[in-house]
Amino acid sequence: MKDKKINETESASPVKVKRKSIYYILIAACALVLAAAIAVTVVFVTMDNSTTIENPNPDDGKDPDDGKDPDDDPDEPDEPSDVEVVFSLPVSGATVGTTYTFWYNSTLNRYNLHQGIDFKADAGTTVTAAYAGTVESISDTLLEGGKVVISHGDGLTTEYASIDVDSSLKVGDKVEQGDLLGTVSAAADAMGNEYNEGAHLHFGVFENGESIDPTTYLEIDEK
What we know:
This protein is an alpha+beta fold.
């Protein structure tokens, strides 16, 4: 009986050993699969991070436009000016006479477009620049009397007629808004084509050579 028990034990031992070997192999295989999965995950995460944080600028990470004057870039178009042009009164305290309208000119005895605004004022009343610009021309003719034309850029000009032009004013001078241009002429010296209107400043505004209503830039309520 003892020998039989020993033989049964000996015959069962190889089976147990075989089962243990299978378990070890399965565990090892699972470990390999898990390791492979971890490795693949690490590779994908690394690639994703590399793509996300990659600096497109190989320099030191600074924006190439930082500290750069936009005016130095010839490809950048100039920003349109948003400065609103507002004229000041060329004659302080004057009364508005004829406005920009179709009217009967009693001096010339005809109807025509009055290309400007007449500011009635006593002779010798100061006439000033309605807006900053450059003196384009100075003239003195029988029909218009003394006249100053100022260019304000972008095709915009103003004219001041029937005035005694200040002797210090010269063509090409830069003037600021409110600078002295001259004084209103006496009625006898007023421009010939509006002689019957008496002493006044004839104020005209032009865009690209075409006359426009001065109230485009000068509010009539101010006068």
